[in-house]
Amino acid sequence: MILDVNENIRLELTSLQHNEALFEVIDRNRAHLSRFLSWVEDMERPGHVKSYLQNCELLYRERKEVSFVIKNKDKVCGRIGLHHLNLQNKSGAIGYWLDKQAQGQGIITKSCRTLMAYGFNELGLNRIELKAATENAGSRAVPVRLGFTQEGILRQAELVNGKFLDLVLYAFLKQDWAG
User: Fold this and answer.
1) Is 0.85 topped by the overall pTM?
2) Cβ contacts of residue 133 below 8 Å, gap of 6+?
3) Residue 125 sits in a domain of what CATH number?
4) Which residues form the N-acetyltransferase domain (predicted)?
5) Which of 3, 85, 138, 147 could form a disulfide with 11 if both were Cys (CB 3.0 to 4.6 A apart)?
6) 90-119 confidence digits (pLDDT tens)
7) Residue 72 belongs to domain spanning
């Protein structure tokens, strides 16, 4: 599955074919990504990414998540997905990361908007959440630009690099979606 964001950006359903390209982006961005993401240190070799991608494929088949690689001008530059899908309660949570060199171009905001459309229109979701570390100003700006409502702070909700981070919880409801 491919979701076209615009003429340059597209989201490709995560698969094993993305293994090497994703590893290269992760490896090049270790310091950048590990500030707020706990899994980076576990991706030491392409084989670790391959195992992760196999798990992503399994979660997709089980309808627990749908995740994509982000391509800008046919080059892998990050990942985005709807995670923690709960189809009974019609909810999910957006997660994303991006190559440092690709930041500042609106890629994540545009990709989130496309993913929200997919979640509301194709999956029938009613609620999409987004969590970002209180210290992660860049990630926190995305839900604000998209019109998410800040619902609160989850205190010491995520352990990253031996430190518990507070997370801001944002949510967007289908009733507020204009498409």
Assistant:
1) yes
2) 36, 139, 140, 158, 160, 165, 166, 167, 168
3) 3.40.630.30
4) 23-166
5) 3
6) 999 999 988 888 888 899 999 999 999 999
7) 2-176
